[in-house]
């Protein structure tokens, strides 16, 4: 849909900063989006403006009222983006901190006993929080095991562990290492069926830049987003908590609002920059659809993003023009297989005869920015079972082009030649 309208991809790219060149190293293709997406130019401008405002919220002056209006708009926009008409939306320190707080509140608010259920596919943000609060509350932390070959964890595997004893469950929507999504709506439904009182928390951090979030349809109690991975900036996280979870005892100033999730004075610029993100989805949705409703335009933008990225991932894995795809290149091993269905923006790989660190450096010299992922506390859950010390992660977003994918594939062929020499 994006490429079907002449000039639209150029318009999209023009709304982002540093699309074609690094401000430090010069021209390059940015395939490190899973580590932090490109920033909207509007986000940069808004951040600078709000950083300069000296006024605080809750004062009797126009400046204060303007800040509070930006916060109110930000919350409204968060609800539209997440499709979360109920519950509470809030800003935290980071996506990781938001997950920790959602999980902590659920663990302390759930009925006593039982187990806490997650999976080995999860990012340590949720898995570590679950391990911590399982230990504190004296519950076993049960893990559904992901499949190395497919790079995801199946509904069947989750169902093996779902019993009425589940008190808190976590689901990662998309793995930031394999790029493969889970059938999280079906997993959440299975949990609700057997353990209706369980709290369900979804890690949407890797997924968010790829659009199509619908908290109202998930049957979950918490959702977390890292805005710097969805075209905004570092320094804050966005969370949603259901009415049921918000009714649990929460950390708050004595005498403060009982169901509020925020403490202290939050940065009004965080809300304003998230509004910039939602405004961008709204704008894009208007370019690819005739929808008149804001939420409908956001959904249309998500569909367009998904379709465009699926084409790019297909080209990367299976080739474009006269260039072979990664799946056809001898010596290339794909983490989680070569499936395009269910893959969101990420391809991780190794190359025989060249270390991941050397491959990252080779591609950098070819003008292509990718990232190494190591068998450490962030990625050991995926790489350890495969016996890998490291891999490289290539991650795209909807502002990337098929021409950029072609340049990457040509560079990989050159890397193969160098590795074989």
TrEMBL record:
Keywords: Pyridoxal phosphate, Transferase. This is Cysteine desulfurase SufS. The keyword Signal does not apply. It comes from Albidovulum aquaemixtae. Gene3D superfamilies: Aspartate Aminotransferase, domain 1 (3.90.1150.10), Type I PLP-dependent aspartate aminotransferase-like (Major domain) (3.40.640.10). Residues 29-408 form the Aminotransferase class V domain. Its EC number is 2.8.1.7. One of its GO terms (molecular function) is cysteine desulfurase activity. The gene is sufS_2. InterPro entries: Aminotrans_V_dom, PyrdxlP-dep_Trfase, PyrdxlP-dep_Trfase_major, PyrdxlP-dep_Trfase_small. It is an enzyme of class 2 (transferase).
């Amino acid at each position: 849909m994006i490429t079907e309208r002449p000039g639209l991809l150029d318009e999209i790219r023009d709304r982002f900063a540093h699309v074609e060149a690094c401000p430090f190293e010069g021209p390059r293709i940015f395939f490190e989006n899973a580590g932090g997406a490109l920033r909207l130019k509007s986000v940069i401008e808004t951040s600078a403006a709000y950083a300069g405002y000296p006024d605080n919220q809750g004062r009797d002056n126009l400046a204060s009222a303007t800040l509070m209006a930006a916060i109110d708009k930000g919350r409204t926009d968060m609800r539209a983006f997440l499709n979360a008409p109920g519950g509470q939306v809030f800003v935290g320190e980071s996506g990781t901190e938001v997950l920790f707080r959602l999980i902590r509140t659920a663990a302390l608010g759930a009925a006593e006993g039982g187990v806490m259920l997650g999976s080995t596919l999860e990012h340590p943000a949720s898995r570590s929080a679950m391990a911590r609060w399982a230990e504190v509350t004296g519950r076993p932390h049960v893990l559904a095991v992901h499949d190395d070959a497919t790079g995801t964890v199946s509904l069947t595997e989750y169902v093996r562990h779902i019993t009425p004893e589940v008190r808190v469950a976590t689901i990662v929507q998309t793995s930031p290492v394999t790029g493969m999504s889970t059938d999280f709506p079906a997993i959440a439904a299975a949990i609700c069926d057997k353990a209706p009182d369980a709290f369900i928390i979804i890690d949407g951090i890797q997924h968010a830049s790829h659009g199509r979030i619908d908290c109202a349809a998930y049957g979950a109690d918490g959702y977390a987003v890292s805005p710097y991975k969805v075209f905004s900036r570092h320094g804050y996280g966005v969370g949603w908590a259901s009415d049921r979870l918000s009714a649990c005892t929460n950390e708050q100033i004595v005498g403060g609002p009982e169901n509020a999730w925020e403490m202290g004075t939050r940065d009004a610029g965080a809300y304003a920059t998230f509004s910039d993100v939602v405004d961008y989805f709204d704008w894009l949705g208007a370019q690819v659809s005739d929808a008149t409703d804001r939420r409908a335009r956001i959904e249309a933008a998500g569909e367009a993003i998904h379709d465009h990225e699926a084409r790019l991932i297909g080209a990367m894995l299976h080739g474009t023009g006269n260039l072979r795809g990664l799946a056809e290149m001898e010596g290339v091993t794909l983490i989680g297989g070569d499936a395009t269905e269910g893959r969101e923006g990420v391809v991780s790989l190794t190359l025989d005869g060249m270390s991941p660190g050397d491959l990252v450096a080779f591609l950098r010299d070819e003008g292509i920015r990718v990232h190494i992922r190591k068998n450490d506390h962030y990625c050991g859950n995926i790489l350890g079972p495969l016996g890998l010390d490291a891999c490289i992660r290539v991650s795209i977003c909807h502002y990337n082009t098929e021409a950029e994918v072609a340049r990457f594939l040509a560079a990989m062929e050159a890397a193969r030649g160098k590795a074989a020499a």
